[in-house]
Amino acid sequence: MLDLKQDYFALFGLPVSFAIDMTRLEQAYLDIQARVHPDRFAHMPDTDKRLSMQWATHANEAFRTLKTPLARGQYLLEMQGVDPAFETNTAMSPDFLMEQMEWREALGEAREAADEDTLEELAQRLRASSRDLIARLAVALDEHKDLAVAADTVRRLKFLEKLQHEINDALTALES
Amino acid sequence: MAYSEKVLDHYENPRNVGAFGKEDEDVGTGMVGAPACGDVMKLQIKVGKDGIIEDAKFKTYGCGSAIASSSLVTEWVKGKSLDQALEIKNTAIAEELALPPVKIHCSILAEDAIKAAVEDYKKKHNG
């Protein structure tokens, strides 16, 4: 019922683009889930059950990938043969890295001092920075078709995502 | 994950943590980062008039393996020429610290940090 070789955009009947219609994506995902949900195959032979499981997993993975900007950007790069090389590409703008270091320092100090206000403020600055990067990624991918800038932006977003997790963990630890 | 004893030793007693003046003529600074884990590493070398690295300092935000890798290379580069420092390979770092495959990128980060520091020093002196 599902063509597993189709790209994720085609699967949901969406244009290949970073800008995405979230409502359409969600609706298309729900439609597919309704069609391939393993419950509907409960009375079918095992091969069909296995297939429906495979389709459902594929649709979940596709939805998760297109839903978040970082994963969608990475996927679009990979569709065009560009690997963002999260493990091996270590050269980034020194200013950006310096800022990352300062944020991590501030996070460490705030965590030690159990300073919730500073943590919240950091989280807010981080969200603003992410928004700027996502806007930049949209321009790089959809307008300029500049894959080098897009890959650099995806790498930066990856940094911010990691920091966001750490701030959230610190805030959760304070609340408990 | 279980860290090797050497990683733990460097992690608990990191060598050469600190910084030199970034603008100093005899200092080269390398800043690198690994998106996969969000680690950031700053490695600085202080070079003598004879072209030999006299001292090295680092500051790293990241996991134990990243801290151990940078601590180790600050020890290794001392007494080396710039060209010798460039020969330090991430595989040697990974081997010395017995890093598991998922932590190899920490050693890549340390190798790249040395390269960036040497490049920065050379840029200051050749133009």
From TrEMBL, chain A:
Keyword rRNA-binding: no
Any matching Pfam family: HSCB_C
InterPro entries tied to this protein: HscB, HscB_C_sf, HscB_oligo_C, J_dom_sf
Keyword match 4Fe-4S: no
Gene Ontology MF annotations: ATPase activator activity; protein-folding chaperone binding
Signal peptide: none
Keywords recorded for this protein, A-Z: Chaperone
Complex formation: Interacts with HscA and stimulates its ATPase activity.
NCBIfam families: hscB, PRK03578.1
Family as reported in the entry's similarity comment: Belongs to the HscB family.
Function noted in UniProt: Co-chaperone involved in the maturation of iron-sulfur cluster-containing proteins. Seems to help targeting proteins to be folded toward HscA.
Name this protein carries in UniProt: Co-chaperone protein HscB homolog
Protein's organism: Zoogloea dura
Primary gene name: hscB
From TrEMBL, chain B:
Gene3D superfamilies named in the record: 3.90.1010.10
One Pfam entry name: NifU_N
GO annotations of cellular component type: cytoplasm
GO molecular function: iron ion binding; iron-sulfur cluster binding
GO biological process: iron-sulfur cluster assembly
Signal peptide: none
Record-annotated NIF system FeS cluster assembly NifU N-terminal domain positions: 2-125
NCBIfam families for this protein: iscU
Family statement: Belongs to the NifU family.
Full protein name: Iron-sulfur cluster assembly scaffold protein IscU
